[in-house]
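Hi support team,

I submitted a single chain yesterday and got back a structure, but I'm not sure I'm reading the token output correctly. Could someone confirm the output below corresponds to the sequence I sent? I've pasted both exactly as they appear in my results page.

Thanks,
R.
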Amino acid sequence: MLKKGLGFLIRNSPSLLLIAFFALLPLFLKDAYYLRILSFIGIYVILALSLNLINGYTGLLSIGHAAFYGIGAYSSALLTLRLKLPFLIALPLSGLIAALFGYLVGKPALRLKGIFLTLATLGFNIIFVLIMINWDSLTRGPLGIAGIPVPKIFFFQFQTQTGYYYLIFVMVLFTLGSIYRIIHSRFGHALLAIRDEEEAAEVTGVNTVHYKNAIFTLSTFYAGIAGSFFAHYIRFIAPESFTFWESFTVLAMLALGGQGNLVGPMVGAALLIAIPESFRVLSDYRMIFYGFVLIFMMLFRREGLFRKRTYRFTLTPPWEKKETAPQYRVGDKFLKEEP
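Hi R., thanks for writing in. Yes, this is the structure output for that exact sequence:
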């Protein structure tokens, strides 16, 4: 039992050290400005990881992800302001509402292929923004919704930047851990089969439409909870925060970091939030910067900084290292046993 416990700690020590580093980071960053940037990075990490489920692991191209992000934000704001629900209930409910819309949109749209699916998701994003602008009685139109209550879990209110940081930190860990379990399951293997060769997957008995609809719905759930946190963090939301340009931003993060793995989206989100923030003089040209990043990566490194492969941050305990069997060469072949 002790040996198994030590083995687990050794194998996962790089990941545990990384988690511990970010958990202790607020003790060294006293400036609320840096914690605010890290909180925004956490929001976009969740968005990038969720979009990666569709674009990276299933091989589809959705460019309307900001619509579900906005649905989560508006749902959480209205649930807490009008129905007086606590944040702890509004958070998962907003994700479920976003997932419901994801299912309703994905059911017909995912039967389309190529550019038609892309245009369908873009069209939904535009329709969502127009509805939010014109439905004054519910959303106050372009004026937006203000006075959204701060998150409160039981008796603790998240009123400081440190509190918000730890809340989004836990949400990122939940998103990362659950997505990791999904992609390393039979469900995830089916998604990879669809991405690599959809027709061959259908021949082997994979219900491709069902799997694509399921992962699209699940992806929108994560976008919804990210929107819920955003609404209660900023305490003000307006339709202009969820336009096509926001979807384009998340897409640029995937293009920079790479798709089809868990490291690329997180690195892409961190870089594309931190770099423009470091040059605030050029903040008005942020979307131009994102456009150049997307063009550059498409021209010179389409797979992004991290390729479509599994990156494992693990070590092997000394007692688990297996000795490689000697090989004997006979002509052009290698045999494990001596002939």
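A quick pointer for reading it: The beta strands are 145-146, 152-153, 156-157, 236-237, 328-330, 333-335. Let us know if anything else looks off.

Best,
Support desk
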